Amino acid sequence: MLLVGFGALAQRLWNLSVERNEEFVHKIPTTKEWRARVPGTRGEIKDRNGITIVANKPSFEVRIDLKTLVDEFKKQVEEENKGKPAELKRKVPMREFLFPNQGIMRSKEEIDIVAIFDEVIIGSLNQLGLASGYNANNLRVHYRTHRGVVPWAYRSDLSFEDFAKFAEHRLGLPGVHIEARPVRQYLFDSMACHALGYVAGADVEKVSEEEIKEWDSYVPDDYGVAGLEKSFDDDLRGRPGIRTWLQNEKGRLVREISYQEPRKGNDVYLTIDARIQMIAEMALRESTPAIGRGAVVVLNPATGEVLAMAAVPSYNPNKFIPAISKADLQAYNNNTTNPLLNRSVRSFVPGSTYKIMTSLAGILGGVQRDVWNCPGGLTFGNRYMQCWIGQKGGAHGSLDLSSAIKQSCNCYFYKYGNHAGDANMTKAGDMLGLGTRTGIELEEEDPGILPTKRWWNANRPREPFSEATMANISIGQGAVQASPLQMAGVAAAVGNGGLAFKPHLLKKVMDGNELVREQKPDLRANFADFGLTPEKIELVRKGMWRVVMEDGGTARAARINNVEVAGKTGTAQNWRHNEKGESVKDNHTLFITFAPYVNPKFACCILVQGGKGGGVSAAPIAKRVMEQALALETGYTVNLASVPEVQGNFNPVEVVSFEGMPPVQLPGSSEEEAGDSGDNEPPPKRAPRAEQNVRVRAAVRQEADEEGSRNVRNQQPQQPAQRRGLLKRLFGR
After folding, report:
1. pLDDT tens-digit profile of 446-474?
2. Any idea what the Cα angle at residue 298 is, between residues 297 and 304, rounded to 5°?
3. What's the Cα-to-Cα distance from 306 to each of 195, 285, 594, rounded to whole Å?
4. Which of 346, 348, 544, 527 is nearest to 427 (CA)?
């Protein structure tokens, strides 16, 4: 009976203490499971050849679970108050804050989280020599908003040495967690910054309260704010993981119970070729003079793939990681050249590059064989409109279409556009995707303006749509607006013989080695469907060939040895206001091109703001880009390195040259100048402003304030004196 009794007791003891151990551990009221959301790692962004452009790096951070901190502090106060009379009992520090409610400022009492943080955390960190100032107001707002569920980032700039020190002592600090969190790293700094965009962290406002309440600690994901980081945010974001800890009665994490590892997001492969992108970036920086405001877009004419998209001024997206400083934020926002503006997809007056679209409209109208005379200027109603050569006292005489393209004759296209008619101008513009968004994967793309008669009557009802209006539109002046991306598409469509593709930046999305999706070429229009035969299109192609390859063309500076190049210059009249509010000329100079002439591999558009003319300001940059891009097939190598950001300027750009290239011919009788837009008088004086207000949208690094620094003592802990042995005292080290 004794053996049976002891056996039953032993069996029951085994059942309770071993078999059901976990069950009873979790039922202990002073312990609980503590669940933390671990943010996923963003996928990488690579170029078409697999070269990584955007990756991730570890960021050593100190995060504070404020709820755990407050709960632990309350328990300490309760322990201290046991057995004390009421008048001697310590209270949890409270404070009042004002908040607006229906237009009236009201007061409310809240826990003074700053006082608790200083006493518990800063006091301990001072002893370890690890204390650092912080922004007390930011801490209060964070605790008030998220009630401690979302950890507060105390420090996110730790060196590895400080990270190791924090990790060594973290068990003694309630609510303190040391993490090596992956953050974004843009490997080449400013390269393709406008296309890539940037990310910001901790967008808690976009997360529902119900989702946050499921966690004891909720660390949100970084999210894309601009550019491709925003466009492909769903692909790039990783899946969060779950870390479960056992929390003891003192609110400290005793041991890890389970860990579900977060999953990395998909990798996004772009159509951009990092080598050609580097060529384009450096062409804008290495020219003499360096370009202060401009853009380069390079397309594959056979597919519509964007091979390069560069613009200046530029910015460094690494400055936004993990948060941008107030100084950098102010510098970007106060820069009137607007470094955050993506000029590649922003619309400008295209000038004479638009004559290529007008040429196609005339073919649709059947007037491509007509010959007209250029006397230097024409009169439409009571308005006299000059050709650019007429401003120099000259005239082009009788011209056909190809000759008019070569000479960029305004008078010819004044007549040509009016004979083509509004319907054909509209059809040609729609065919090329002008006046509408191309559909490229960038939200900031500007659709531009295709000023048809219908558009004119709707937007400028007080101004009649006259022959003079159509004449001005035909040469790409007045209300016409198009982006460098759109004009590069025009060059690509003419260069490949009549296929207008929608440009795109996405090559494919990969989940490890598994293909998620792939972007195929998307044909917008086939010119043959509109009656534009290869023979008719060749009239335009031949004119563009003559612009570069024949003497007397307006883009001789774009010639490349042993390569047939075709192109079209453009110089559009424009005004801007300087710091004094005075109107100064700031012409837009452009050059569109494709090469080689037969089976072109590249189509390109160059924009230079404040240039002298498309032939001397933009064409030399196109030569540099196209020449080096074509040379890649014959062994030319490009060293990928950090690309510095460009601050931008309003300096005039006349003749552009490069080291090692023959000098560009100075503007002469064959250099096209800005045409007549009907706005020859400068606009009235006004306050200066950025041409388009693109402001920084990102998390701002909060600098330490006086309240958050008053209790910090940056003293290193004293190390105990070490006794030196006899040999060390005699011989040193």
Report:
1. 999 999 999 999 999 999 999 999 999 99
2. 110
3. 11, 21, 14
4. 527
